[in-house]
Structures
1.
Amino acid sequence: MTSFIIVLMTVTSLPFAAFPEDLWIEVVLSRYVNDEIDRETAIELVGRDRVKRAERELQAVSDDVQWGLDA
């Protein structure tokens, strides 16, 4: 299987007013999906709902990549 790095959001796409909290959430989730921190740590830092959503998004990307490789 091909490995790849997922970055969930770029800094330039964040509105300035929400920047600090949103950036923190994206950094934590990016570190989680790139196996830099474990699941429990990510849940403690940003909450279970956000971690579950990131897992669903990662699975969707993985499924799309696999579909593209099989095409």
Note: The chain has a mean pLDDT of 82.
2.
Amino acid sequence: MTQRLMKAKAVLSGHVTVEAAASLLQWMIEHPKAELHMGGVTHLHAAALQAIAASRNRIASAPEDAFCAKALARLGRT
């Protein structure tokens, strides 16, 4: 999994693992107005999904994986 965390956006790709969820959550807490770019995500661990659901960060691009994209779309922030 590639995870690039910047001030204004996070770019996620590949498999977003349970290990990545903690750092992603911390980043979202510190950058509440930043966007999540998830266009290259092929798998999203449930812990990462829960972290994203708990945040208010906007999802700028949906994951490649149809199931993950549908789950995130239900949050209403795409």
Note: Strands lie at 2-5, 9-16, 35-44, 58-61.
3.
Amino acid sequence: MTGENYKDYVDKYLFEPYKISSAEITPIEKDKNITKGFNNKLVDDKPDFLVGGVVITTTDLLKFLNQLHSYTIISQKSYTS
């Protein structure tokens, strides 16, 4: 929707504003040393969803959780819906 890739969007609108400096999106689909998923016909899964994860320190995870539970990242209405 924004034209930005997922990693850049998360960095810009989530990690940077809340000073989460250790977090890194890991694009597993580009890593040759990570196993890939496949379906019941042994065909590789399509990469049409986020394939990867986030590496983050405990300190930055707590920053994220504090912001999440104080309804700063998303509204209370969105959080409880």
Note: The first helix runs from residue 6 to 15.
4.
Amino acid sequence: ADVDECLTDENNCTKNASTCNNTLGSFECLCRPGYQRISTFVCAQVTQPLPSSNGICSVYR
């Protein structure tokens, strides 16, 4: 049987910035709107996107 890591302390998702999504045999952290993934389990708030040379915002400060 699959263990729901989202219901235990086994998940390392950033509590205020992401939600835990249980998957078969594991889990994933999904960033909330206004946050961007900076590592496997950490989402950080996006403050101001900087446009890249091709017009797509890809760098954040």
Note: The first strand starts at residue 18 and ends at 23.
